[in-house]
Write a structure and sequence with these properties.
three-stranded antiparallel β-sheet; 3 helices; 17% helix; 2 domains; alpha+beta; 127 residues
């Protein structure tokens, strides 16, 4: 956290903010279609005429697979608000990545979330 610019205090009583950090995952069944090339060959004879024909086509093969996304949420609260039992979120952010990508590059994914920490999301959304 310190490497990401946070000032970590030893005593909770001197903290100005509380950062809530949650990790979760969601698996969804994805349906898709894979198109495979296919060809068929026909040959024979009609009367005295021999023939041979090849027809090329594409065959659609439906399949399903599981897709798991790992998610990370940050919520920032002002300690003064919490003391007043007012759990108003000062800032929140979320990032998600395919599970394998997350496991291979957790630091980079968290870095992306830290890079926008405190920013106004709407300011980064195209119209």
């Amino acid at each position: 956290m310190i490497a990401n610019g946070f000032n970590i205090v030893a005593e909770r009583s001197s903290a100005k903010y509380l950062l809530d950090f949650q990790v979760g995952s969601k698996t969804s069944k994805m349906d898709s279609v894979r198109y495979l090339p296919s060809s068929s060959r026909t040959s024979g004879q009609i009367g005295d005429t021999l023939y041979s024909e090849t027809t090329d086509s594409t065959q659609a093969i439906p399949y399903s697979y599981n897709y798991t996304v790992k998610k990370v949420w940050f919520k920032l609260y002002a300690v003064e608000d919490i003391k007043k039992e007012n759990f108003m979120t000062a800032w929140e952010g979320y990032i998600g990545a395919e599970e394998k990508v997350y496991e291979e590059n957790t630091r980079g994914i968290l870095r992306n979330l830290f890079d926008v920490f405190g920013a106004n999301y709407k300011a980064h959304t195209p119209n």
